[in-house]
Amino acid sequence: MTRAKTRAFPATMPPLQIQASALQAVDALRVAEWLHDFDSWDRDDFVREIGEFIYSIHGSSCQFDRHLVSMLADQMQCYALCSRILQANNLIVTQNGGVTSGAHPAIGIRERAAIRITTLMTELRVTPRTRADVVKQPNETWLKEFLAGPFGANGAKV
User: Fold this and answer.
1) Residue 149 to residue 155: CA distance in whole angstroms
2) I want to staple 62 with a disulfide (CB 3.0 to 4.6 A). Which of 12, 39, 58, 96 is the partner?
């Protein structure tokens, strides 16, 4: 049997170099206030913030998205409530009169809420990846039209 080769870990690590622009980016992206105090979660504030953000990206064409935003806010509230429950209780609970033990039910509920939150945010195009697609799209369309020339893709003068 052969042993895997390992490298020695250095006794002292070199100091971490952080650029000033990275620090500014961290300051600009603050942690949500309710993450530290789940009682401060406010569904109406969230709906207003995300509505303003979606409107700034997509304009007035997003009026019907209010239904998806409402569902997203509901899932966010579920996540916050489960987090509050888990903060006050043990992660492992006894069940069946103390015979069995297992994960607190709020863990599974919060996990499913997080999956639904990500799905809804993707649908609303407010995740980092989907925002990048929205921003790139108009520039790529303009570039394709420019490269097609004055006669366009089908040979007709534009």
Assistant:
1) 9
2) 58
Number of helices (H) and strands (E) in the chain: give both, helices first.
5, 2
**Nearest alpha-carbon partner for 91 in 114, 110, 117:** 110
pLDDT at 2 over 70: no
- pLDDT given at position 3: 55
pLDDT tens digit sequence for 84-97: 999 999 899 888 88
> What is the C-alpha to C-alpha distance for residues 72 and 65, in angstroms, rounded to an integer?
10
Six-digit token pair at 104?
A: 């607190």
| Residue 48 near residue 124 (C-beta atoms within 8 A) | no
Buried b (16+ CB within 10 A) or exposed e, 46-82: bbeebbeebeeeeeeebeebeebbebbbebbbbbbbb
CB 92 within 8 A of CB 103: yes
**pTM surpassing 0.70?**
no
